[in-house]
Design a protein that fits this description.
The protein has eleven helices and twelve strands. Strands 6-5-7-8 form a four-stranded antiparallel β-sheet. Strands 1-2 form a two-stranded antiparallel sheet.
């Protein structure tokens, strides 16, 4: 195991420079908009914002705006935070001493003296901003680059595969899955990839006839163009794209917006299904990645082009938005859980209960980080 970890660290070291710039570019975009959501709704609610930081730790440089907010770049570029008036820490835990000595005027601008509704809105604004960012990015990509599609034609059926068992034949063209029209082979791949072990219905054009086939995608480990291993559903169908066969459809802004919303929902649904699959045993937790994996993928995707890197930023934004909504104290979802309890009880939880919750949350977040880093090193070692 020590040799595996050493190889993983060596691999990371060799690619660090190539990974660092794309990684920081993507992460900075996502974190900035997440914190901007908190900041804007906080300002709207009349809360005084003390600090807007990209990164943690010592300040590298920054400035103070006319409202007294310190905007800064900090030394550890793995996240960020907005600190409101009355906060004791970057995680928005209250300072009992500061709150107890506030004047009525100061209380009017204190985050912790706001009613539960505005506090919940401020906290929820971060993840919501992440989802909106993803929608905007996808919409822009569809608007400026169009919607590419390739005919979902079957050029080869793998022997003893799910496709062979379902009755697929060379020359078949898949037009719909479970009654919903698909736009091309990539659409079919995307749907099949998340339906491993599930019975799926396919509408197929075979010559002049239309036939209905049913198949169950198999769960397999496959490698992408960069050699990264992924487990996903596979039918066992091959499509050989001929020159000029891929069609790029130009779409108007309204259609692009709708496609952006659909794309965002697809990744939300897929992520939640994966997390649920871990708890039910359908999915393996070794696909959970952390900063090292994100850095590696960012560097790899950057070699394709800026559009691909921006697309990755949208996907990462969705993941961070969802992660922050998990009901774990210390995360935004944990704060929202406390506020929900407060709304039901008519009063907040005791300081001791909240402190214990944040300690538990910190422990869970640290364990997740250690586990994700462990997976990252093993992944790097195998690549």
């Amino acid at each position: 195991m020590s040799e595996t970890f050493l190889h993983g660290f060596n691999t990371l070291g060799h690619g660090l420079i190539g990974y660092a710039v794309p990684f920081l570019f993507v992460l900075t975009i996502v974190v900035f908009f997440h914190e901007l959501g908190h900041f804007l709704v906080g300002r709207w609610a009349g809360v005084r914002v003390l600090t807007f930081s990209l990164g943690f730790g010592p300040e590298l440089f920054g400035f103070t705006d006319r409202h007294g907010t310190r905007w800064k770049i900090s030394a550890v570029p793995l996240g960020g935070y907005v600190r409101f008036f009355g906060d004791d820490t970057e995680a928005s835990t209250p300072s009992a001493e500061i709150l107890s000595h506030m004047t009525a005027e100061e209380q009017a601008h204190s985050f912790h003296h706001k009613k539960v509704g505005p506090r919940a809105a401020i906290v929820a604004a971060g993840p919501i901003a992440n989802f909106l960012l993803a929608i905007v990015i996808f919409t822009c990509l569809f608007t400026f680059f169009g919607k590419p599609s390739t005919l979902a034609r079957v050029d080869k059926v793998e022997a003893n595969s799910a496709a062979a068992a379902a009755g697929f034949q060379v020359g078949d063209i898949v037009t719909a899955i479970d009654g919903s029209k698909i736009d091309g082979f990539s659409d079919m791949q995307r749907i099949v990839s998340i339906r491993a072990g599930e019975r799926v219905s396919f509408t197929v054009k075979r010559g002049e006839a239309t036939v209905q086939l049913e198949g169950t995608p198999e769960l397999r480990t496959i490698k992408d163009q960069f050699g990264n291993a992924h487990r996903q559903g596979v039918l066992g169908i091959t499509h050989e794209t001929a020159a000029g066969e891929t069609v790029t459809e130009k779409v108007d802004p309204a259609t692009a917006l709708w496609l952006g919303v659909k794309q965002t929902w697809f990744f939300i649904d897929r992520t939640l299904a994966y997390v649920g699959g871990i708890f039910t045993g359908r999915e393996a937790a070794d696909q959970v990645g952390g900063p090292l994996r994100i850095a590696q993928i960012s560097g790899q995707v950057a070699t394709i082009g800026m559009a691909a890197l921006i697309n990755l930023a949208a996907v990462l934004s969705i993941s961070i938005g969802l992660l922050n909504l998990f009901p774990v104290p210390l995360l935004d979802g944990g704060h929202l859980l406390f506020y929900a309890v407060e709304a039901v009880r008519g009063r907040p939880l005791s300081d001791r209960a909240q402190e214990m919750g944040f300690r538990i949350g910190l422990g869970l977040v640290l364990m997740l980080m250690v586990f994700a880093t462990y997976n990252d090193i093993l992944h790097l070692a195998a690549s």
